[in-house]
Amino acid sequence: MMAEDIQHNQKANFNGLTKSAKSGASKKLTIKNFKDRPELTDSYTEDTWIKLRDAVSAIQNSTSIKYNLEELYQAVENLCSYKVSPVLYKQLRQVCEDHIQAQIHQFREYPSSVMGHFLSFLKRMNRCWQDHCSQTIMIRSIFLFLDRTYILQNSLLPSIWDTGLELFRTHIVSDGAVQSRTVEGILEQIERERNGETVDRSLLRSLLGMLSDLQVYKDSFEQRFLTETNRLYAAEGQRLMQERDVRSFLPNSHTDALHMLEKQLLGEHMNAILQKGLWMLLDENRVCELTLLYELLSKVKGGLMTLLQAWRDYIKSFGGEIVSSPEKDKELVQELLDFKDKMDHVTQRCFQRNDNFINAMKEAFENFINKRPNKPAELIAKYVDSKLRAGNKEATEEELERILDKIMIIFRFIHGKDVFEAFYKKDLAKRLLVGKSASVDAEKSMLSKLKHECGAAFTSKLEGMFKDMELSKDIMIQFKQVCVRRYILLNTQSASQMTHYTLSLSLEMLVCKLFYLGKHSGRKLQWQPTLGHAVLKTEFKEGKKELQVSLFQTLVLLMFNESDEYSVEEIRTATGIEDGELKRTLQSLACGKARVLNKMPRGKDVEDADRFHFNSDFTHKLFRIKINQIQMKETVEEQVSTTERVFQDRQYQIDAALVRIMKMRKTLSHNLLVSELYNQLKFPVKPADLKKRIESLIDRDYMERDKENPNQYHYVA
C-alpha cells in the first residue's frame, strides 16, 4: 500500500469517526454530564485520532511517543464515552494490520543461498515476534478502556491481544513460503542437536511457543516433526543392525530409542509443559492426566525434582490466596481443610505417595499459612468452637472426630500456637459455663489431641476447667439442700480472664455468695454474669412456671418481687448493669417470644423513657421456659484484648528464656544470644521485639553490656 493511499484512507476514517459520533451520541452524554471531557466536535475527534495513530505508529517503529500515556488513555476513554467505540476499534485494527502487512516483505525477500541462512532467518522471525508481542501489550495499555468496555461486551469481537495474534498469524506465519522456511529452520536446528552440535535452545523454545500461541503448531509443525523423528529412528535402526549382532541389537536399540524419545519429547519441553499445564490440571483436579504426567516425568532425568518444585510453588500460591484475603476469613478454615484434602488426594492417587512430595506439601502449607501471623490460629480456634457447640447437627460423632483430626493437621503448621490456645481457652470456658458443649467426649478427645501434639503444659489449664465443672456440680448439690427455691451456677476459675462486672446483687444472690464464701474461706468470689444462668420459680395467672434465665435477667426479674413496675433508670441504678447490656436484657424479657415483662410504650427497641411491669397474664405450654439472652457477638475489643494478652505472655516467655540462657552461658554475643533464643521459643518473634526485651532486662539489671564491646552481654548475678 502506497503512502498516499494510507493517508487517503486515514482521512476517510476521520470523517467516518466523526459522523458516527454525531449519530451515536445520546443527549445524556453531553458536557453537562462529563464536566472534565471536551465537547465532541469534528475537529476534536479528528485531532484525537491523529494523536492516537501517531502514538501507535511510534510504538510500532520503536520511536519515542510524543504524548503522555495517561493523556492517551484519557483520549480513548473520551471517544468511547461519546459512542464512537465501533469505529475506533475498526481503525485501530486497520492501523495494526497495515503495519504487520509491511513486515512480510523482509521474510519473503530473505536470501536462501547464504550460509547458515536458516539460523539467521529464525533469529529475524523471533525478533519480529517478540517485537510484535511487546508492541501489542503497549498498544493495549493505551486502548485498555476500549478493550474492557466495548470489546468485552461484544462476544464476537476478539480482544486487542487476540487481534494482534490473529493478524500476525494471518499475514506472517500463514504465508506459505515464510511458514515453510520457519518449520524447515526449526527442524534443521533439532537435527543439528541430535547430531551432537550445540544449538540455541532458547531460540527454539521461543519459536515453538510462537507456533503454539498462534495455534498453528499441530498443523504446521507437529506432523513434520514426527515424520523426521520417524526417519531418524529408521536410519538409526539400520545403522545398529549393520554394526551389531541380534543379541546386542535388541536390548540396546530398545533402550537407546526410549532414552532418545524421552529426552526429545519430555526432557526438552519439561519446564514448558509444567508452566503451561500443571496449575490448570491441579485446579481442575484432573487425576488421570496428573498420574500420567508423574509417570512420564519419572522417566526423565531431573523430571520429578522439576515437578516437585512446580507442585510446591502451586500450593504456596493457591494457599497464600486463601490466607491473605481478610474478606474470606469466615470460610478460611473450611477452604484450608478442603484444599488439604485435595492435595492429599493428588499425592496418594497421582504421585504414588512419594515421600518427597508429601514433605514438600507440608513445607508449602507451613510456609503460606504463617505468611499472615496469628489470624489463622484465631480462626482455627473459632472453627473448633463452632463444631463443638451444642446445636451443631452437621456431623455425627464419628464425622466430628474425623473433622477434629483434619483440624489438627492444619494446627501443626501454625507457628503461633499460643494464639490458638488463648482463643480456644476463652471459647471452651463459654461452652462449659453456659452448657453449650455438644459432647463432653468430643471436648476431651480434642484436649487429648492437643496434649499429644503440644505436651501436658499446653493443656493443663484447659483440663483444669473440667475439674472446676465437677467441683461446681458438688457445690450445686449442697446449695440446693440449703436453698431449694433458687439456684445459680457459680464458677471462680474457668473464666478468670472474662470481663468482670460490679453489680448490685439482690438479697437472693447475696445468699448464694455467702453460701460459697462459707464453704471456701479466704477466697474472692467474682461474678461472671455473661456466663451464669439461673432457674427462677414464679407464679402467673395461668399457674406456676420455671424460668431458665441468664444472670442479668435474674437481677432484673428479682426486682419485681418488690414492685410491679420500674423505669429503665430505676432498673439500671438498682442492678448496676452496663447500659448496652441492660437494654439487651430488657429486650429479651419484654420484646422476645417469651414476654414475661410488658414494655410501655410498645416497640422492639428499648429507650431510656420506657417503663416495664410484670406480665401476670403470660402463658406458655411448657412448665420450664428458657428465655434466651440477646447475645452480643464477640467485639473487636474482646479480640484485641485476647491478642494483647497473648503478646504479654510472650514477653514473659522471652524474658524467662533470656535470663535462662544468660544464667547458663554467663557471657554471649548478641548474634549467639538471638540464635539460641530462636531455638527455645515456640512462637514467631521479630528481631526488633527481641532487642526491646534485651534492653528491658538490661534496665532491670538482669544483664549488662560489655563496656568495650556493646554487642556482647554479661549475666548479672
UniProtKB/TrEMBL annotation:
Pfam families: Cullin, Cullin_AB, Cullin_Nedd8. Pathway: Protein modification; protein ubiquitination. GO terms for biological process: cellular response to UV; DNA repair; proteasome-mediated ubiquitin-dependent protein catabolic process; protein ubiquitination; regulation of protein metabolic process; rhythmic process; ribosome biogenesis. Residues 375-590 form the Cullin family profile domain. The keyword DNA repair applies. InterPro entries: Cullin, Cullin-like_AB, Cullin_CS, Cullin_homology, Cullin_homology_sf, Cullin_N, Cullin_neddylation_domain, Cullin_repeat-like_dom_sf. One of its GO terms (cellular component) is Cul4A-RING E3 ubiquitin ligase complex. Keywords: Biological rhythms, DNA damage, DNA repair, Host-virus interaction, Isopeptide bond, Phosphoprotein, Ubl conjugation, Ubl conjugation pathway. Signal peptide: none annotated. The keyword DNA damage applies. It comes from the Eukaryota. GO terms for molecular function: ubiquitin protein ligase binding. Belongs to the cullin family. PANTHER family: CULLIN (PTHR11932). This is Cullin-4A. It comes from Cyprinus carpio (Common carp).
